[in-house]
């Protein structure tokens, strides 16, 4: 065999290989990393229709036309080619082929994806699932449906960015023309596969929230939206509250941007059963008598109200915030649509009645009033520290009431008026009134306590006005004893003087809450309308007053007995009545506040004063509290337009016998029995009278805080009632041995300085303590308010 010719001399030179690299020697040459080419992806199996490989959306860079000279990076690779060979030596051929391969990969461009084809492919994949699937128990999350819905959403959003604003792309047109949303809402209603409703709600929320093109005007959009809203609250939808709240929030955001959409979403037609929805909650008489009333159709309002009752606090909070958003729309057309088509007022007031019915009848007034004002945004802070039966029910009721109060305060006047009317009809008259008029003592206590909490909770003017008129009746001319009373008003006032001390105490607390309400009609109805003509003053020439003489004559004491409110033996140096002028007020009462203050401080005789024995402060300890109370009263009455001075007598029409009114009569009667009543009841009576005295109306100030009034025959004022109580006290002091020592012991027991012990005449001693403190409080209020200014 002939040997082959030898190669060229250059090829005979043996190849020299570098020594193996030493990892520990950094100067040792290291091999260059050779990139690995990933294996090609397997082709998708056409037999599997339920899951396909993710279709990559074309990026903006791929959509641009190819630049001249090849793909980016190709020139860099070509430039690096001549440099690689000399450096790498023998491996040049292999790396050259690798470089060519990389260059070809870079220069090769991926063909653009047809968006409409990809969109329809994903939609057909979803519909094909229902033809191919055999396991009906497989949850929707374990199928490719969520992924395909996400791809459809991404395609719609991407397509919209590629088109001018306001122009619908082919994928969006396909969505609308082929009723994709209609089909999805039907699949969501069927809840097949399990969890499909959740996926549909998410897709609707994302499409409506991310696609900027207006969609809710289209019939093929707002009709399936209505269908989904009607499914809210369905038993099958109990696990989709979060998605339902998100869906409703997106709709409310769209309505806020364009309030005209509300008419599309609250369309008065049932989509599920194809019948006309009722526009009014009740059926007219004679219509539908043979058939039961149809159920209330679901819509955005019913969905939000249902979600606002959720046990999930975040869901309920979000739903209530969206209700506030809807009712606060300033457009009158939107407000009218809510009132007419939404059943909003009936649903909200019915739930209030339902929560009130869940409150146990054993709720005690002390527990209710100790709760404080509730807040629907933080219901955990409303219950206070104590625990008692029915606390959770009360918190839920007052939180819902607080939500309604805020909703009415910020709602359009049309919505606020309709909701106030519904609350009055269904709750005030339908629930509260029968409970307040019943005869059971336990029921009266519970109903009065809940009513007191209701009065304290409400601040929205439309609700306050209806509540005040419901309790006290409409205002009018001054009432006389013979006038027919407002039934509920008369019952509530008479219960302040009830045989049961607990009912009297609860009723007095109710009126204290009412007097704190920022509504003028409360004070007008209870007190002021009987004082407008100043009929309590003596008219005509001034009557000489022997009590004001510098040197009183004992022979004239018989004339003092003509005044039924002054008793024999009363010390004259403490509260001598000054000379009256024709207007009825003394110049001292107007010009010298110190004289008025001294008149109240000197009412209680020294034998009955014990505060100084315990080094307690005088009336000045009440000045700070009196200042806060007077300022709060002035703030409430600032917008009521009360006159700064009393009305001149010559401008007041003459009237018959003066009548102080039912409310003041009960308070004065209770105050006259202060020495024989329970301690807690005396505190409440004096608290209500102090609150009345703090009001800035000049007639009320004159009647309650001026000791120098020239009263008409048969009339009494607050000061004259106190004078009679002091006269009775002076007589009883003489009949009780060691009166002052026992009185001091009782005061120490009330302050907690000594342990409480059973003692004879304890009620009398506690009444004297309250009487002394009440006179000090009145003196502080008179000091803070000052005298009324202007002509008498």
UniProtKB/TrEMBL annotation:
Compositional bias annotation for Acidic residues: 552-565
Compositionally biased residues, Pro residues: 16-45
Domain FHF complex subunit HOOK-interacting protein C-terminal positions: 660-752
Domain of life: Eukaryota
Compositional bias of kind Basic and acidic residues: 288-298
Region (Disordered): 1-76, 275-298, 537-590
Pfam families, alphabetized: DUF5917, KELAA, RAI16-like
Membership in a protein family: Belongs to the FHIP family.
Name of the protein: FHF complex subunit HOOK interacting protein 2B
Taxonomic source organism: Anas platyrhynchos platyrhynchos
Gene responsible for this protein: FHIP2B
């Amino acid at each position: 065999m002939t040997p082959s010719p030898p190669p060229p001399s250059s090829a005979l030179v043996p190849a020299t290989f570098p020594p193996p690299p030493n990892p520990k020697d950094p100067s040792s040459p290291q091999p260059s990393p050779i990139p690995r080419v990933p294996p090609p992806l397997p082709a998708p199996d056409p037999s599997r229709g339920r899951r396909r490989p993710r279709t990559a959306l074309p990026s903006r860079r791929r959509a641009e036309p190819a630049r001249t000279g090849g793909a980016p990076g190709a020139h860099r690779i070509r430039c690096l080619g001549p440099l690689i060979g000399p450096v790498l030596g023998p491996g040049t051929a292999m790396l050259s082929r690798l470089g060519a391969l990389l260059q070809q990969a870079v220069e090769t461009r991926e063909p653009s994806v047809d968006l409409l084809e990809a969109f329809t492919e994903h939609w057909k994949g979803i519909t094909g699932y229902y033809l191919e699937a055999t396991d009906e128990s497989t949850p929707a999350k374990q199928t490719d449906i969520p992924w395909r819905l996400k791809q459809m959403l991404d395609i719609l959003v991407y397509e919209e960015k590629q088109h001018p604003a306001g122009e619908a792309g082919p994928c969006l047109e396909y969505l609308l023309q082929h009723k994709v949303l209609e089909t999805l809402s039907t699949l969501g209603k069927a809840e097949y596969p399990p969890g499909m409703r959740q996926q549909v709600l998410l897709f609707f929320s994302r499409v409506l929230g991310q696609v900027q093109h207006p969609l809710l005007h289209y019939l093929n959009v707002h009709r399936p939206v209505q269908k989904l809203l009607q499914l809210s609250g369905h038993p099958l939808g109990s696990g989709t509250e979060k998605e339902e709240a998100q869906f409703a929030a997106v709709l409310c955001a769209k309505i806020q941007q364009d309030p005209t959409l509300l008419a599309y979403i609250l369309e008065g037609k049932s989509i599920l059963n194809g019948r006309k929805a009722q526009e009014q909650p009740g059926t007219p008489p004679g219509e539908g008598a043979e058939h039961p009333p149809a159920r209330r159709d679901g819509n955005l309002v019913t969905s939000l109200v249902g979600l606002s009752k959720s046990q999930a606090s975040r869901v309920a909070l979000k739903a209530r915030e969206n209700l506030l958003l809807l009712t606060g729309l300033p457009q009158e057309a939107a407000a009218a649509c809510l009132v007419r088509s939404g059943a909003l007022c009936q649903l909200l007031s019915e739930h209030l009645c339902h929560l009130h019915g869940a409150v146990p009848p054993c709720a005690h007034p002390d527990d209710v009033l100790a709760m404080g004002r509730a807040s629907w945004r933080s219901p955990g802070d409303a219950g206070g520290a104590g625990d008692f039966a029915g606390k959770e029910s009360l918190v839920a009721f007052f939180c819902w009431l607080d939500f309604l109060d805020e909703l009415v305060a910020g709602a359009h006047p049309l919505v606020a008026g309709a909701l106030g009317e519904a609350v009055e009809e269904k709750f005030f008259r339908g629930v509260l009134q029968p409970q307040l008029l019943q005869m059971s003592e336990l029921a009266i206590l519970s109903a009065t306590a809940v009513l007191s909490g209701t009065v304290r909770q409400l601040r929205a003017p439309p609700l306050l006005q209806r509540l005040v008129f419901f309790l006290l009746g409409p205002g009018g001319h001054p009432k006389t004893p013979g006038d027919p009373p407002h039934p509920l008003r008369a019952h509530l006032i008479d219960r302040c003087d009830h045989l049961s001390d607990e009912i009297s105490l609860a009723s007095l607390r109710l009126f204290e809450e009412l007097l704190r309400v920022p509504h003028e009609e409360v004070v007008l109805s209870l007190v002021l309308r009987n004082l407008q003509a100043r009929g309590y003053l003596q008219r005509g020439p001034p009557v000489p007053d022997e009590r004001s003489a510098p040197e009183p004559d004992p022979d004239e004491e018989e004339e003092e007995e003509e005044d039924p409110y002054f008793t024999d033996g009363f010390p004259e140096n403490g509260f001598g009545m000054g000379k009256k002028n024709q207007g009825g007020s003394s110049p001292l009462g107007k010009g010298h506040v110190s004289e008025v203050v001294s008149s109240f401080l000197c009412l209680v005789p020294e034998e009955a004063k014990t505060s100084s024995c315990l080094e307690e402060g005088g009336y000045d300890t009440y000045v700070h509290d009196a200042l806060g109370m007077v300022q709060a009263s002035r703030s409430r009455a600032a917008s009521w337009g009360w006159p700064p001075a009393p009305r001149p007598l010559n401008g007041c029409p003459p009237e018959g016998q003066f009548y102080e009114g039912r409310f003041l009569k009960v308070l004065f009667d209770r105050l006259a029995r202060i020495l024989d009543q329970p301690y807690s009841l005396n505190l409440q009576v004096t608290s209500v009278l102090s609150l009345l005295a703090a009001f800035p109306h000049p007639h009320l100030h004159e009647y309650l805080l001026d000791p120098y009034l020239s009263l008409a025959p048969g009339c009494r004022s607050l000061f004259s009632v106190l004078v009679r109580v002091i006269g009775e006290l002076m007589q009883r002091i003489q009949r009780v041995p060691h009166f002052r020592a026992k009185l001091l012991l009782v005061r120490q027991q009330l302050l907690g300085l000594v342990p409480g012990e059973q003692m004879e005449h304890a009620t009398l001693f506690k009444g004297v303590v309250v009487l002394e403190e009440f006179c000090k409080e009145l003196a502080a209020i008179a000091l803070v308010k000052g005298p009324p200014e202007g002509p008498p």
